[in-house]
């Protein structure tokens, strides 16, 4: 995930560490360097070592990994490497940094690149490929990705027709959180279509309740949750081809189809009958921190909150996240068709040399073996789009639901659009203008036109 996306997720984890630990059951062990610990050992994990024999004798070699994945999410990563290390004798040396995006570019330019980096943004991958420092993925990795991932994921790891980086972890954004007991008590059913969701919202409003609660506050990154709303609706109303054209600026940012999509979002977020349950009026969305925005569901002040799967970490300690628990989530329904598109993000594994040990480790990370090992040593909040992942190995029912979405052969997946756009748009003008759209009731057409005018010249 990008710096901003990682900030979203870290804030969520920090805000809900209690519930995360309740769901996880037992904590990860303490280790140093690349060695695993009690978590991996207790799970009695093993893999087939045969795929790594073709890389030769790797005993005593090291592979350095540089990533934005830091404490507390780093330990499951380290633990997941243990079976590979035991198979090959390779020592995986892990380094996580909160300044990853900026420092990686500096290290590459100074000739001090790591062996492998987990790239959270396809745009950053393209930038690094442009330096000539990234090497294409080996044939073993290509074979794994062709077998275990939807083709769209391979596209995001490809630059100018060459495949460089296999997908790693993933996150699903197209969820609506709700209280199963509140729905049951009121006689509400989970909507299966957009029209059903709007009808449910009207029903709740007519009964005197507020159907939605929302918040886009996030410090310097205020506005990003609104970008996810817009991207999700563009994907549903205009379709994946138009979504791609919009993200790549092959159509204007203020194309009529995008105006229609933002107006659909406004039909919820700017509707005073719908929002902002337990938090204030429409304008309160702009000042409400995203991590707090769904909490009114717990006291019945609102009924629905759209946010990614990682929001599970924001519920207070003791909150049961389950289909029959205190809170759960359903996929944001489709506007057209029967299958809901999936908006998400993730990381990609890029290598800066083609040493056998590095290629062997790339192969492991792109395998179904690694995905299942990682699931077993992780707590809630981690999932992969690898179709070889057994969803039963995931701890959280929300993560299981996300994995099922990723593995649905009929579902359309698209990467977070703002993460694919130039930084001055996706992490700049779009955040600012959507905040103005909420806080100051700036008209939809003017918002999108101002973003269009801010798009950098080619």
Report on the architecture of this protein.
The protein is α/β, with parallel strands linked by helices and 458 residues long. It has 2 domains: 3-172 and 343-414, Periplasmic binding protein-like II (D-Maltodextrin-Binding Protein, domain 2), CATH 3.40.190; 175-340 and 421-454, Periplasmic binding protein-like II (D-Maltodextrin-Binding Protein, domain 2). 43% of the residues lie in helices and 11% in strands. It is built from 21 helices and 11 strands. It has helices at 3-15, 17-24, 38-42, 74-80, 82-88, 100-109, 122-129, 139-148, 151-156, 180-186, 194-206, 224-237, 240-247, 256-269, 284-287, 356-365, 368-377, 397-407, 417-420, 423-439, 444-454; strands at residues 62-67, 91-96, 116-119, 158-159, 162-163, 166-172, 175-178, 305-306, 328-331, 342-351, 413-415. Strands 1, 2, 3, 6, 10 and 11 form a 6-stranded mixed beta sheet that branches. A 3-stranded antiparallel beta sheet has the order 8-7-9. A two-stranded antiparallel sheet has the order 4-5. Strand 4 and strand 5 (162-163) form a beta hairpin. The longest helix is centred in the last third of the chain and has 17 residues, at 423-439. The radius of gyration is 22 Å and the shape is globular. The two termini are 25 Å apart. Residues 1-42 have low confidence and may be disordered. Keywords: Signal, Transport. Belongs to the bacterial solute-binding protein 1 family.
């Amino acid at each position: 995930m990008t710096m901003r996306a990682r900030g979203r997720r870290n804030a969520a984890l920090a805000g809900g560490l209690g519930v995360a630990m309740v769901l996880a059951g037992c904590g990860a062990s303490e280790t140093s360097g690349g060695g695993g610990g009690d978590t991996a050992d207790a799970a009695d994990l093993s893999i087939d070592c045969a795929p790594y024999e073709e890389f030769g004798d790797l005993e005593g070699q090291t592979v350095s990994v540089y990533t934005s994945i830091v404490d507390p999410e780093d330990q499951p990563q380290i633990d997941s490497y243990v079976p590979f290390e035991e198979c090959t004798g390779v020592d995986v040396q892990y380094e996580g940094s909160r300044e990853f995006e900026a420092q990686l570019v500096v290290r590459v330019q100074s000739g001090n690149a790591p062996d492998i980096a987990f790239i959270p943004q396809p745009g950053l991958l393209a930038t690094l490929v442009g330096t000539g420092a990234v090497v294409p993925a080996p044939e073993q990795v290509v074979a794994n990705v062709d077998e275990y991932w939807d083709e769209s994921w391979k596209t995001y790891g490809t630059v100018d027709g060459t495949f460089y980086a296999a997908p790693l972890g993933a996150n699903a954004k197209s969820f609506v959180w709700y209280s199963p007991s509140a729905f049951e008590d009121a006689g509400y059913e989970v909507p299966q279509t957009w029209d059903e969701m709007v009808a449910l919202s009207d029903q709740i409003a007519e009964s005197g309740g507020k159907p939605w609660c929302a918040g886009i506050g996030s410090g310097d990154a205020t506005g990003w949750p609104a970008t996810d709303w817009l991207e999700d609706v563009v994907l549903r109303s205009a379709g994946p081809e138009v979504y791609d054209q919009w993200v790549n600026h092959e159509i204007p940012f203020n194309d009529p189809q995008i105006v229609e999509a933002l107006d659909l979002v406004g039909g919820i977020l700017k509707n005073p009958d719908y929002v902002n349950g337990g938090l204030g009026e429409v304008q309160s969305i702009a000042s409400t921190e995203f991590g707090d925005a769904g909490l009114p569901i717990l006291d019945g002040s609102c009924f629905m909150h759209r946010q990614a799967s990682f929001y599970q970490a924001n519920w207070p300690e003791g909150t049961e996240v389950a289909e029959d628990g205190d809170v759960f989530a359903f996929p944001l329904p489709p506007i057209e068709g029967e299958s809901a598109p999936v908006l998400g993000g993730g990381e990609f594994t890029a290598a800066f040399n083609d040493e056998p040990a590095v290629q062997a480790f790339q192969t492991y990370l792109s395998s179904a073996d690694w995905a299942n090992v990682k699931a077993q040593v992780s707590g809630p909040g981690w999932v992969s789009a690898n179709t070889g992942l057994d969803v039963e190995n995931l701890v959280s029912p929300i993560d299981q639901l996300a994995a099922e979405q990723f593995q649905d052969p009929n579902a359309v997946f698209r990467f977070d659009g703002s993460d694919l756009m130039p930084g001055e748009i996706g992490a700049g003008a779009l955040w600012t203008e959507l905040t103005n759209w909420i806080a100051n009731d700036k008209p939809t057409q003017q918002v999108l036109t101002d973003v269009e005018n801010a798009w950098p010249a080619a």
